[in-house]
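Long-time lurker, first post. I've been practising inverse folding by hand and with some scripts of my own, and I keep getting stuck on stretches where the structure tokens seem ambiguous. Below is the full token string for one chain I'm working on. Before anyone asks, I'm not after the true native sequence, just a reasonable design that respects the backbone. If someone could post their per-position residues I'd love to compare against what I wrote down in my notebook.
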């Protein structure tokens, strides 16, 4: 692996960022996983479902890890490169891959799915989730919590206001869910350790997770990147904290 700034930048700028496979970061960054094991728990629920929907599936990588899928399984995704990856990965298993803007109306009839899942959705449209769930059935999701990797956010953007730090709080998710109809039956949050071991890992992460530093480009943030490169070389990995919450909500019977 290169260790000069320009070499690390060039490597990270040309790495493909479609899908939600983060294996490019192996050995270069690490993120502690929540204790509840979302992928395993989601797979257990999917194995017993009749009709399952995975919203904002990305490249389909998480769902593809489930040993057994619902009798009828559908995924939605809005970004064309991810749609292509999801189709290649999931259609051989009989999954329907649907292009949809997941923050708006879902293209499905009322009371269609007995399980709806989503890992790290950008937004959760509770009205639509409640509409497409069959009565008595479940939405199960792991989501990014408040002030996640804010050490990195504030390194680039400066101190953030208190209201920004409270965004994506699980209490807000509970209120939004129950205002739309589904009743929350499980809600947990954990704060976890994350570290970046070189500036290339940082650039790749910011290119892929575009809402962390909106409008991020290497050219536009080069002075801060150079300062961060020097800091990592002198002091070791850049450490931050991620927050994740698990939410399970059930549509009233």
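-- Answer (accepted) --
I ran through it position by position. Result:
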């Amino acid at each position: 692996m290169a260790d000069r700034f320009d070499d690390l930048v060039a490597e990270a700028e040309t790495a493909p960022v479609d899908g939600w496979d983060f294996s490019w970061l192996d050995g270069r960054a690490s993120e502690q996983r929540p204790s509840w094991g979302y992928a395993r728990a989601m797979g257990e629920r999917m194995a017993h479902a009749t009709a399952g929907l995975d919203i904002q599936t990305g490249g389909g990588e998480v769902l593809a890890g489930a040993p057994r899928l619902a009798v009828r399984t559908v995924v939605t995704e809005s970004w064309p490169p991810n749609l292509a990856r999801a189709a290649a990965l999931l259609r051989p298993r009989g999954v329907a891959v649907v292009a949809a803007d997941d923050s708006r109306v879902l293209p499905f009839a009322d009371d269609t799915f007995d399980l709806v899942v989503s890992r790290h959705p950008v937004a959760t449209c509770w009205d639509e989730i409640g509409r497409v769930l069959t009565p008595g059935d479940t939405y199960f999701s792991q989501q990014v919590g408040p002030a996640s990797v804010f050490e990195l956010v504030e390194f680039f953007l400066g101190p953030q206001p208190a209201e920004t730090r409270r965004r994506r709080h699980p209490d807000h998710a509970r209120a939004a869910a129950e205002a739309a109809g589904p009743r929350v039956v499980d809600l947990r949050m954990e704060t976890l350790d994350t570290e970046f071991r070189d500036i290339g890992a940082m650039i790749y992460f910011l290119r892929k997770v575009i809402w962390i530093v909106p409008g991020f480009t290497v050219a536009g943030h080069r002075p801060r990147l150079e300062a961060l490169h020097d800091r990592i070389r002198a002091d070791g990995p850049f450490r931050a904290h991620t927050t994740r919450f698990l939410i399970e909500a059930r549509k009233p019977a």
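A couple of notes from the structure itself: Residues 5-250 form a domain with the Rossmann fold fold (CATH 3.40.50.150). The longest strand covers residues 183-196. Happy to go over any region you disagree with.
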